[in-house]
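[Discussion] Sanity-checking designs against the backbone

I'm trying to build intuition for which residues belong where. Below is a structure token string of 427 positions. I'd appreciate it if someone posts a full sequence so I can compare it with mine line by line.
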């Protein structure tokens, strides 16, 4: 039988000892059901000792059992008094020997003079607190959320052990309840959880759990900028986890330009010649379709210096190239920083593997152009074309003409030349 406490510092899942402490567990579960603990504060946090909650007044003197709460909130005119406390169920087999032990705070009853339990409980923040055995009644253990307990343990408190910044139970979810409801419980159960802390206006709160004193004097636009940076960092971490980024703090290179709206006939050599007047170009790649070899009409140009890339960015915007006005921007791609192609990360294939040489820029349907493949002097006579054709040796290779007419030739003539050359070799 379990209960989930959603606190301002994280979630806590508590398993209850319903067999050993049935009355205590019933009291706790039914108080949770009527939203008694919602928006309650941890009013007593002692480092490496305990964190105490369950008092609506956050003073350490309030709280009552579920049976007393039903009686005090019902419209019944009966005069029979219902005790505020009930006798603690202290068993010898349940001890305060582990961090995360949940125990009812046992205090002397002002009505009868005997010890009793009401609604206040605490969670131990240390191991081996056996000196609490026999004094307070253990009824559960934290099974999930020990990291939340560490956060609670590290908060700053005043001399009364009240956290300087509120820690509140935002919501309580009953995961399993084996007990039937006591008479009158449904009549006093609120239709919705409370939206106002029960101790509001008491003067105990120093800093609200939803307040940040470090940003009170920061302008709104600066706060918005910080929120955007935090959101961007979170998104980058997610992309790193799924493999889209090599690491979360990676930044796009400042010396690489992205050029789009190109004419389909524009080649790598054309762009490099045009942009080389701004500085030394390390690489210039027109991205092509893997299957057809057609230009996808965008390219990446890497300069040796960032200043050269900036100058080209300002000078080449909307410039006419091959009857097309190109668009120039700084590249936002980080694929160059990765040691593996993005589409091979999912397979775990290194870049040097033969199976990993398909794809470019994270896409299966793209391929690097011949000029920027690995150069091997022993294989200079191979075609190295961008479409899917078998690589064979050719007897002769006439140099490619670089005039304007060559750029306007269609791809079909090159394919026919290749087929004719292949048939000649077979004969």
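Best answer:
Here's mine. Compare freely.
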């Amino acid at each position: 039988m379990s209960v989930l406490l959603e606190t301002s510092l994280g979630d806590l899942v508590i398993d209850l000892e319903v067999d050993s402490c049935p009355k205590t567990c019933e009291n706790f579960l039914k108080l949770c059901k009527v939203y008694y603990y919602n928006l309650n504060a941890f009013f007593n946090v002692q480092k490496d000792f305990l964190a105490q909650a369950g008092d609506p007044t956050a003073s350490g003197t309030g709280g009552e059992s579920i049976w007393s709460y039903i009686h005090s909130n019902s419209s019944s005119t009966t005069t029979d008094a219902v005790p505020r406390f009930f006798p603690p169920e202290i068993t010898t087999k349940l001890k305060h020997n582990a961090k995360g032990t949940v125990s009812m705070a046992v205090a002397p009853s002002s009505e009868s003079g005997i010890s009793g339990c009401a609604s206040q409980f605490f969670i131990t923040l240390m191991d081996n607190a056996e000196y609490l055995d026999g004094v307070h009644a253990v009824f559960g253990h934290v099974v999930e959320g020990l990291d939340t307990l560490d956060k609670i343990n590290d908060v700053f408190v005043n001399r009364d052990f009240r956290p300087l910044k509120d820690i509140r139970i935002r919501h309580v979810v009953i995961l399993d309840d084996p007990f039937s409801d006591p008479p009158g419980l449904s009549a006093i159960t609120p239709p919705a959880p409370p939206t106002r802390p029960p101790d509001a206006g008491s003067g105990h709160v120093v800093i609200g759990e939803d307040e940040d004193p470090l940003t009170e004097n920061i302008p709104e636009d600066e706060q918005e900028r910080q929120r955007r940076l935090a959101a961007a960092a979170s998104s980058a971490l997610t992309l790193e986890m799924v493999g889209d980024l090599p690491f979360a703090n990676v930044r796009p290179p400042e010396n690489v330009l992205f050029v789009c709206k190109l004419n389909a006939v524009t080649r790598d050599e054309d762009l490099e010649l045009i942009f080389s007047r701004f500085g030394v170009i390390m690489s210039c790649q027109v991205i092509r379709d893997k299957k057809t070899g057609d230009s996808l009409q965008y390219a990446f140009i890497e300069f040796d210096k960032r200043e050269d890339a900036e100058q080209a960015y300002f000078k080449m915007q909307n410039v006419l190239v091959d009857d097309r006005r190109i668009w120039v921007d700084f590249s936002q791609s980080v694929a160059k920083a990765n040691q593996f192609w993005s589409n091979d990360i999912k397979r775990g294939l290194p870049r040097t593997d033969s199976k990993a040489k398909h794809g470019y820029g994270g896409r299966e349907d793209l391929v690097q152009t011949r000029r920027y493949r690995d150069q091997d002097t022993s294989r200079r006579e191979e075609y190295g074309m961008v479409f899917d054709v078998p690589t064979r040796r050719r007897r002769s290779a006439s140099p490619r003409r670089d005039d304007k007419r060559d750029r306007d030739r269609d791809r079909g003539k090159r394919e026919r030349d290749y087929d004719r050359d292949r048939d000649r070799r077979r004969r």
